[in-house]
Amino acid sequence: MAAPDIFTIIRNARQQGQYEMVIDAVRRLTASKPNIGKGWEELLNHALAAADEDAGLEIAKVMQEQNPRDPKCVLILAERFSRVGKSEIALMLVERLKKSAPANPALDYFHGVYSGHLGKLDEAAELFRAAIRRKPDFGDAWALLASTNRINQDDKAALQALLEKNTPHALPGAAYALGSLMHQKGKHEQAWQAWSMANAFDRKRRNFNLQGELNAMKDIQAAFDRMGDELPAVQQRVQGPRPVFIVGAARSGTSLTEQIVAATAGTRALGETMLSRIASWPLGNLGQGDMQKAGAFEPGKVEWARMEKVFRGLSGMRSEGAPVVTDKGAILHLFVGAMAHILPDARFIWVRRDPRDIAFSAWRAYFADGNRWRNDLSDSAAYLKGHVEMMQFWQDRMPDRVMRVDYETLASEPQSTTDDMLGFLDLPRLDLSRTNFERSNVPTASFAQIRGKISTQSVGGWKAYEKWIGPAFGHEG
Which domain of life, per UniProt (predicted)? Predict the structure, then answer.
């Protein structure tokens, strides 16, 4: 079949929500490596819309092969490697690219990002500085420099000037950076003012449908209530790694928890993946209508083993032979029921943190995209309440599969909490005093936060900003 015909199939399948067909067509076209020019960018967009990051990586490889001198293709390939947990390859690609364009601030920036993912924070900070020297209004570089805690008083005037000019490409990054600097100085009013400017900017450019999110959570719970508690019988375990899902809202401590679990022998951290989404596409969006259409309310109608094979196959390729993998993500709470059915041996760690600390941490943090609830405190309070209710729903129905870990307890009693958690997961004991997280691969916004020793430093951080945060949460825990 000619490439134009396959593109028509892909576009029609997306319009109809038939993402299994999208994935199949994308992969078939990619395997044939046709010379379709700009069509590869469209194909990449289709792959990512279907959550198929592995196909996205293969597409990026073809793009780079067919356009070896195009730096844009190299950067796309680096990003795709990073997204599948291979930031070391992403770093190598950017370092190679910089040899031909040593004064490019964008390359300094990406060099810093991937260095940060790998725990090279001093190097990352120097690279963000280099990007800013070459492009003083580089907002993203300012924000990530601040995330490494390498911003200082000498930066204040430059940041204030950028905000006074209201330079679009300096926002919201420069505002997040200025807020971080003021926070370090204990100037809470000025910090809050800067962060408010950053969140207002993000709120305007990214809509958030709070009620839609809450309705989706309720609909998924209702769908799994209709299915009942009985899980599908295990005929023969599909080969592949045993999964541990680390579930929690953004900024709740899931990155730290994943790194602890992944430090055990034979365990590989996959980070934030979309494998749950790609494996469960036959169930649609997991609400009652899609689940009924898939036959989930009728015994024997759903091919759970086929979905299990997809997850184990993809996670197995990424794990490189590790018998256990960890998977985390900000929307995994939606997939707990589906993955419990698809993967009979899966276990789930629910990381719960004081929602006011989550809201504060998210309010002051720079995210390139996603987690749009964080830009309005009333949205944060309602969304996080719904998140807790949903996770409590899963734990009530599957107490032997879902364990709650309170971030505050993990921070204050790390060894005993870790012992309990690893016992629940049937993993070997880990001596935290001998565990070093400095060089772990963390390709998320938390790459600078989890380095070093576990501490209670961030617990209760919201209290310094109580007059702004408290009212949205009704001063309740």
Answer: Bacteria
